[in-house]
Amino acid sequence: MRLIVPLQGVVQGRGGLILGSLIPCALYYCLQLYLKRRRPSKPDPPSPSQSSSNLAELPRTLSRSSLSTRGSMGRVRISSRASWVAKPNDSPYYIGLDRASEDPYDRVDNPDGVIQLGLSENRLCLDLIEKWVSENLMESIVGTEGGDLSISGIAAYQPFDGMTELKVAMASFMSQIMGRSVSFDPSQIVLTSGATPAVEILSFCLADHGNAFLVPTPYYPGFDRDMRWRTGVELIPVHCRSTDNFTLNITVLDQAYGQARKRGVKVQGVLISNPSNPVGNLLSREMLCSLLDFAQEKNIHIISDEIFAGSMYGSEEFVSMAEIVDSEDFEKSRVHIIYGLSKDLSIPGFRVGVLYSYNESVLAAAKKLTRFSPISSLTQRLIISMLSDTRFIQEYLQINKKRVKDLYDLFVAGLQQLGINCAKSSAGLYCWADMSGLIRSYGEKGELELWDKLLNTAKINVTPGSACHCIEPGWFRCCFTTLTPEDVPVVIDRIRKVTETIKSSS
Amino acid sequence: MTRTRPADPSTNRSKSTGGGGGTTVMRVIVPLQGVVQGRGGLVLGSLIPCALFYFLQLYLKRHRSNPNPPTPPPSPESESEQAGQLVELPVLPRSLSRALLSPRGAGGPVYVSGRANSVLKGGESPYDVGLRKVAEDPYDELGNQNGVIQLGLDENKLSLDLVGDWLVDNAKDAILGGDELGISGIVCYQPLDGLMELKVAVAGFMSQVMGKSVFFDPSQIVLTAGATPAIEILSFCLADSGNAFLVPAPYYPGLDRDVKWRTGVEIIPVPCRSADKFNLSITALDRAFNQAKKRGLKVRGIIISNPSNPVGSLYSRESLYNLLDFAREKNIHIISNEIFSGSMHGSEEFVSMAEIVESEDLDRNRVHIVYGLSKDLSLPGFRAGAIYSYNKNVLAAAKKLTRFSSISSPSQRLLISMLSDTKFIRKFIDTSRERLRAMYLKFVTGLNQLGIECTKSNGGFSCWADMSGLIRSYSEKGEFELWDRLLNVAKLNVTPGSSCHCIEPGWFRFCFTTLTEKDIPVVMERIRKISETCKSHS
C-alpha cells in the first residue's frame, strides 16, 4: 500500500535533515521572536561575551557555595556590563590621553614629554578667568555682606536640575553665543554636571535598549561611551567624505536609515554636532532644514550638540538648530540641543552642561534623572555671578575669539609648510588634518602606524580619524588650544622629523 | 521497503518531526511513530525539536561576541514599564508608509523611550508629594506660620553656621590659593573620579568618623557627585538587568530610584519587624534569598544602611560577621551604606563594615562601602559622595563611569582645604554631635509626651515613631490616611513607613535636623491636635 505520509522524505533521509528540522524550528523561533517583541520588559539575558576575563575565574555554582566553609569561596563576580566597561582602553583616543597625562610636556621641566593635542580644552584665556574669579569669588558664593544669600544657599539641598537663576543666566548666555535672534526659554533647560551626562540622559530618554541613532562621521570619540555604555543604544555611522568637505549628505543618511531598518534596528534619532567635532565645519541653514524634514518624515528625534557654538574663528555664520525650529513651523518636540560651558567659557573643571529640549516628557524625565548628575551648588553660584557680569562676558568672548583665531592661523600655517592641509573649518578648538600623504599603506593600519609614530617617536598625542569612525584613512584631529604660541614651532618641528623619516625610507 | 527504514541517527539527532509512518506489512519500530500517526503528535512532534533548537540558539547567542554593551534592557519595574508603553499606544501608530505621505508638520508626535516613560510614570509616592508640598509652601516662623514644616528630608541644618563661618574665612584661599596650579587647578579638565588630594582627605575623614582603628586606602576611593550616583554606579557594576539585591526593610525611599531606575535591577525587601527592633535576621534574609531563587531571580547582593535609615539603629559586630558569612556562602556582594556613620547621637559604638573586613584577612572583594559628605559634614549642596570598594574590577569600572557623575573642581578644592583643617573638623564633629544629641532628646521627649514611642536609635537625622495607635484601620490605608492628615491638616511632612517598604503599618520617619529648637513645640502642638481628633473619633 502506498500511504501518504507527512514529512515522509524526512524519515527516509532524503533531504530530511534540512526540511525536517529547519522548517519547524524556524517556525518556532519566529514564534519566540514574536512573543519576545510583544512582551514588554522581560530583560534580555545579558550577553556575557564581554566578561570572558571574569569567566576565567572559578565558575560559581550553588552546590559549590553551600558546601564551602567561610573563606574558601571562589571570587565574587561583577556584572557583565561592568566587565565590559572596565576593559582596558583600546581606542587610540584614550590611549593617547593616558600617555599625555602620564608624561606631560613642559617647556622647562619636561621638554621630552608628550605634547597634548588630543584633548579639546581651551587654555588660551585662563588669565581672564583667573582674574575674574579672584575678584569675585567670595561675593558670588557667600554673597555680599548682609546680603540675603545665606550659607544654606550653597550648603543645603538644591533642585538637582539646577537653580532657576542659573537657568535664566544660561539662557541669555546661549542667546548671546548663538546669535541674538534666538531666544532660549529657561524652563526648557535642564542642567547637568557637564555635557557628557546630558548626552547620556538624552540617550536614555529617546531610545530603548537595542534602538539606534544615526551619527554622521567623523564624530567625537566620546559619543561611543556617552550614548552607548549604560543605555544599550547603538550608533550607526553615516559616512561623510573629504570630497564633500565632510558635510552631511541627506541621501547617505537615508541609505543608512534604510539599511538599519532592514537589519531590524529601530532608529530613534540623528545625533549631529554643530560646529562639527572633529572637522570644525558648520551645518548650513538649508542643511538644518533638510535634516528636520528628514526627521519629520521618519518621525525621529534630532540631538544637536552645539557645545562649540561660541568657539568660532572663521567668518561663516553659526546657525543654531533652535533658530531653525523657531523660524519655521516644524514639529518642535523632536529637537534637543546639548550645550555646556566647558568649551566656550573654558571651564571644563566646573562640569556645567545643558540639556535644552522642546519635548515636555523628555524634560520631565531628564529633570528626575539629574539626581545622578547634579552640579555642586557652590559652582552654580559662581557661574551665576560670572554669567551675569555682562561686561566680563563680552570682553572674554571678544578676546577669546581673537586668541583662538590667531593660534589657529599660526598652527595651520605651520602644518601647511610641511605639506599637510586641513579641512576647511570655521569653529572648534582643533583642526582636521589630512596626513594621508604620510601613511605607508592606505588603510586603517597605515593610519595607526603613523599615529603610533607620532605618539611614541615624536611624542605628540593626536586623535586618528579611525577613533572618530572616519571612513577615509590618514586624517587626524589636532587640538591646538592647549598650546601656547611658543609651543607651535616645537610641535611643527616634531612632526617634520616624522615626515622626513617617512619620506627618506619610502 | 526502504520506506520503513528507521530514521538514521543523524536525522534522529536533529529531531525531525517525521516518524516512520507508513508501515504496512511489517511492523517496524519507528522513532517518533506516534507523531505521524497523530497520537499526541502535535506536542511531541513540534515542541521537542523546537525546544532543542531554541536552546541551541540561546547557546549561540551567549557565545557570540557581541559588539554592543550588555546594557540594561528597558526598565526597572515591569509594571510601570507596561504602563509606560500604554502611554505610547494611544498615539497614532507610526508606520513608514504613513510618514512618507505626510507633508511637513503633519507627523504625529515623536515618541520618547519606554524607560523615560517609566521614569515619569513612577509617579509621586507620598515621599515625593510631601517634599513637593514643602517646597511650595514652606513654614517660616515669621513669614509663613501656616506653612508646611519639613520633617521628611535627611538634611542637617543644626551646624550650618560653623560651615558658613569657615567658608567666609577660608573659601578664597581654598579655591584659588595654596596650589601651585593656580587657576588651571580648578577650571581645567581633572580626573573625573576625583582629585587624589580629595581622596586622601576623604579617607582621613572617614577614619576619623568611623573610629580611629579603621584605615581607608585612598586608592580604593572613587568620588561621585553625591552618594546617589555612587549607589547607582554600584548597582550597574554588581548586577545585570533582571538581577536583584536583597534590602532589609524599612529602607530609605530614594533607594528604589537609585538602584532600579536606569539599571533594570530589582530590589527584594527583606522584612524586619518591630518585635526585633527592626534588626535584620539572617533567617529572614535566607528565606528571601531562596524565594527569589525560586522565582528565577539571580540575587547579586545585599544593600544595608548602617546606621540604618530610617530606623537609626546600628549593626552589631556580630550581625556584620553573620552578614558577611551569609554573603560568602551565597557568593554575593555586600553594599554597606555608611553615610550617617559620623552623625551619631546615641551611646552605642558604630562598627564599620571596613573594620570587619580588615580584621579578617580574606575575601574582601565582595564588600563595597558608600559614603558621602552630605550628612556628616552637612554639605548636601556640594554633592560629594564616595564609593569605597575592595574589588579592583568594580573600582576600574566605577572610575570610568564617573564621567557621568563628576564633582566640580572648585568644590573639590574647597573640600580638600576644609577636610585638611583638622582643628576645624574636630570642633565641627564634636559640636555637631552634641547639637544632634540635644535635638534628638528634645524631639523624642516631645513625642513621648504625646504617647508616641520611638525605636531606640543611635545615629542619623531621624527618629522612627510608632503611631499605629493613631491609625483607624491597621493597614497601609490607615497609615496613608494619617499621613494625609498630618500633611494637609497639621501641615507636617513626615515619611510614612509604607514609603520605606515597612511591613508593619503605622510607623513614621521624622527628620528633626532641619528644625530649630523653637520649632519643636510647634511641631508637637500640631501633632497633638491630630492625635486628639483621632482619639475623639474612635
TrEMBL record, chain A:
Keywords: Aminotransferase, Ethylene biosynthesis, Fruit ripening, Membrane, Pyridoxal phosphate, S-adenosyl-L-methionine, Transferase, Transmembrane, Transmembrane helix. Residues 40-61 are annotated as: Disordered. Its EC number is 4.4.1.14. The chain crosses the membrane at residues 15-35. CDD domains: AAT_like. It catalyses: S-adenosyl-L-methionine = 1-aminocyclopropane-1-carboxylate + S-methyl-5'-thioadenosine + H(+). It comes from the Eukaryota. GO terms for molecular function: 1-aminocyclopropane-1-carboxylate synthase activity; aromatic-amino-acid transaminase activity; L-aspartate:2-oxoglutarate aminotransferase activity; pyridoxal phosphate binding. The keyword Signal does not apply. Residues 115-495 form the Aminotransferase class I/classII large domain. PROSITE patterns: AA_TRANSFER_CLASS_1 (PS00105). The keyword Cell division does not apply. It is an enzyme of class 4 (lyase). InterPro entries: Aminotransferase_I/II_large, Ethylene_sulfur-biosynth, NHTrfase_class1_PyrdxlP-BS, PyrdxlP-dep_Trfase, PyrdxlP-dep_Trfase_major, PyrdxlP-dep_Trfase_small. GO terms for biological process: ethylene biosynthetic process; fruit ripening. Pfam families: Aminotran_1_2. Pathway: Alkene biosynthesis; ethylene biosynthesis via S-adenosyl-L-methionine; ethylene from S-adenosyl-L-methionine: step 1/2. PANTHER family: AMINOTRANSFERASE ACS12-RELATED (PTHR43795:SF46), BIFUNCTIONAL ASPARTATE AMINOTRANSFERASE AND GLUTAMATE/ASPARTATE-PREPHENATE AMINOTRANSFERASE-RELATED (PTHR43795). Belongs to the class-I pyridoxal-phosphate-dependent aminotransferase family. Homodimer. This is 1-aminocyclopropane-1-carboxylate synthase.
UniProtKB/TrEMBL annotation, chain B:
Residues 1-16 have a biased composition (Polar residues). It is an enzyme of class 4 (lyase). Residues 67-76 have a biased composition (Pro residues). Pathway: Alkene biosynthesis; ethylene biosynthesis via S-adenosyl-L-methionine; ethylene from S-adenosyl-L-methionine: step 1/2. GO terms for molecular function: 1-aminocyclopropane-1-carboxylate synthase activity; aromatic-amino-acid transaminase activity; L-aspartate:2-oxoglutarate aminotransferase activity; pyridoxal phosphate binding. SUPFAM superfamilies: PLP-dependent transferases. Residues 1-24, 65-84 are annotated as: Disordered. Keywords: Aminotransferase, Ethylene biosynthesis, Fruit ripening, Pyridoxal phosphate, S-adenosyl-L-methionine, Transferase. GO terms for biological process: ethylene biosynthetic process; fruit ripening. Residues 150-527 form the Aminotransferase class I/classII large domain. InterPro entries: Aminotransferase_I/II_large (IPR004839), Ethylene_sulfur-biosynth (IPR050478), NHTrfase_class1_PyrdxlP-BS (IPR004838), PyrdxlP-dep_Trfase (IPR015424), PyrdxlP-dep_Trfase_major (IPR015421), PyrdxlP-dep_Trfase_small (IPR015422). The keyword S-adenosyl-L-methionine applies. Homodimer. This is 1-aminocyclopropane-1-carboxylate synthase. It comes from Pyrus ussuriensis x Pyrus communis.
